[in-house]
## 1
Amino acid sequence: MITSTYVYTYDSIPMPTASITSKKSRLKVYNHTNIYLKDNSNFEIELHNPTPSRYLAKIYINGKELSKAGIIINSGQRVFLERYIDQDSKFLFKTFEVDDVKETEHARSQNGLIEVKFYKESENIGYNLLVNYPHTFTYYNTSSGLSNISFTATSMLLTENSIPKSIETGRVYEGEKSNQKLVQSSGDFDSLSSFVYNFQILPESTKAIEAQEIRHYCPGCGLRVKKTSWRFCPNCGEEL
């Protein structure tokens, strides 16, 4: 579980930003990092650059680098990235249950983790330490067939008290085919990131209910109570 996000902000200074969106609408962020989605939900990563410089956005998903390539965001440009860089598959969030035990805690911490790092285009070549990222968006199929895999399973009898409780978690997978196209570009960018954004997508079922989301109804007729100032139900007169 991510406990903090490292976003460097400066008053009145424009900076590139990253957000998680659904159908190009920004999703609400809870506790600075948490975002909640339903099972089998597609999403996008919004990248916006309001600065006069170009930036390279490097993306990490489920704790792993999305691609050796990055997304170059030109000055004033806004991009809604809906797909993997190296293959035309949409971002898909899927949920599943695991045992809620300490042994799975570390593995769960990487599930649904989205990290975006922005690298500014180098201006003083010869003075800045440069890193040459491959900017060619090469499409290739990373899947491969698996064969000749064997394993040994040890069975054990679980009593009702020994069965651990389960907890729902979720990871980002490759979804249906995306029609979004990527165009090759190039440039030299700083080796150190200027801005870093962290998000963690979690199952909607794990979201805590906020006070304003709790609905109250009249015990007499079932009418929804829309105002806290109501002392009596306007429909049946029942005391609230």
Note: The first strand starts at residue 17 and ends at 22.
## 2
Amino acid sequence: MDRRAFLGTLAGGLLAGPLAAEAQPAGKVYRIGLIPGGPLAVRMHQWDAFRQTLRDLGYVEGRNILLEFRPPGREGDRFDDLAANLVHLRVDVIVASGSSAIRAAKQLTSTIPIVMCPAANPVEEGLVASLARPGGNVTGLSVVAMDLSGKRLETLREMVPRLSRVAVLRHSRASAWLPSVEASGRVMRIQLLDLPVIQAGELEKGFEAAVQWRADAMMVMASPLFFGLRTRIADLAVKHRLPAVYDLPSFAHAGGLVVYGPSDTEYYRRAAHYVDRILKGAKPADLPVEQPTKIELIINMKAARALGLTIPQSLLQRADQVIE
């Protein structure tokens, strides 16, 4: 079963993109500003999906479209400086990944369309008025409906039957999902240990704290910082004998035990469709914010063996992908 298909949250969501022959008239070159949520090198496969979708829609770089990447060079780079550069260039559309980058762009312009790719909770964060009618100049993708905390804890419990203590590893700036994780923990009677990490150098201490607390497993919450460190995080989980669940497929391919979440490239493909619609005249205020309605379950058997886990056959049968 293919669980990667994205659907609009509401009737009247984005339509599939037109054929290449219907792309913008020859002679017009559009400039698209791109603000990745982290260093570009670790996210190229996502932006490659964005580029490929634009090509499928009839946009050719250097002929009728120019892509202006403004990635942060390191942790702590100011997104407002990157956004200011794009506003100064008068780009036609800004595509920003992550709430911090989106917020920086929104604060600097109320006229240039901004496509979220994605935001955690755009309504609560004041980025859009509502999912159905965003208003203003911001629209795009959101993960707000993907409250998968309970499902991730259930997946861990299937792998670790006596699960009672779970450490929650998160970037200190990423707290949007924490209330839902805590609520799921209460319902399932699982104790949680919040482990906020400010920078990469604190990861080892975070894992050591989890072990000292006698955690049975770990939940790793998404952040640009963790995405760039996914291989290291997966290795630390094995080193400290902590079964861990993640939310993006890239973590499983980097050695993580199990992923339960939306495709980390499909957001970028859908973002390209938003760009296409906007360049053809659609207003961001009128384009509903999309959310993923299908998710992927990916199990890394190499990690399972390293952790000494026996994965239930019922869980393997439900998996979209099993990495040997």
Note: Residues 38 and 224 are 5 Å apart (CA to CA).
## 3
Amino acid sequence: MPKDHELQNQIMSKSHSSKLSIHPSSSKMYQVLKPLFWWTKMKKEIAAFVARCDNFCCVKAVHMKASLLQPLPIPGWKWEEVSMDFISRLPPSVKGYDSIWVIVDRLTKVACFILVRTKHRLHQYAELYFEHIVHQYGVPRTIISDRGPQFCLSSTNSEPN
């Protein structure tokens, strides 16, 4: 291939931005171009070209922040540790329920699905929890939750009916 930098940049640009390859790494791009083209310092120029690509640099795994999340220890007994979350924004049922409260035993992965209303107050969640979980399985040692608005004390959530 002739020593034409503009032509080489066009080839690298087409290869790197192709809808089939979607911003490959420099080694992947070199492997694709090697059977078709060759020029002096080709591998080095491809690496420099990819390093200048904003899209590639943004999604490159090296630039992602490492997470500090650690796996939770395995519970020692069933219903000793539970997790809970809500499935919300559902169309209301005939009885007015518009959410599902999901409570899962972390050891056995057994789940309880409790129909609730978005407008429930804290004391109503507590009553449902005792009725469906504590009466049947006992009090868990730990509860894991995303600290949703359903459990936050506020003027709309804390007043009993």
Note: Residues 81-151 form a domain with the Nucleotidyltransferase; domain 5 fold (CATH 3.30.420.10).
## 4
Amino acid sequence: MILAHKFPLATTDIDAIPKGREPHEIDSYIKDVAAELGIQSDWLNPYFSTFTHTLPSDYGSRLIEVFKGKKLTVLALSLDEMLIMKCFAQRQKDVGHARALIRKGANIKQVEAHIESLKAKRIPGAAQALDFLDELRDE
């Protein structure tokens, strides 16, 4: 949200999924970076990967490049995909983030249609995600 969509948030970690690797496979590198920068060793948060199964199959075509270096490229989710993830996570802090995504231009109708398709497929949490989105819309 910060890098791709310029949201003024404070955070102590980065929600990320290393492409082609599991987080435990790069754990030593994560700890080396933490030591070098003097930050917490849990600065890379793979928690949100729990919800990636809820994303549209073509979400990769909408990823936004936020950094490209010699050995690292960083991509971020679009507004719509971020909103889908927030609807499934449903943490208290996600309410404000979801509102901000909507104000920034996330397409509620597309997000709703996608979550409804997941509900029809009986994806766990889809009904609650729709309720979360409905509550945001009703505000």
Note: The longest helix spans residues 92-104.
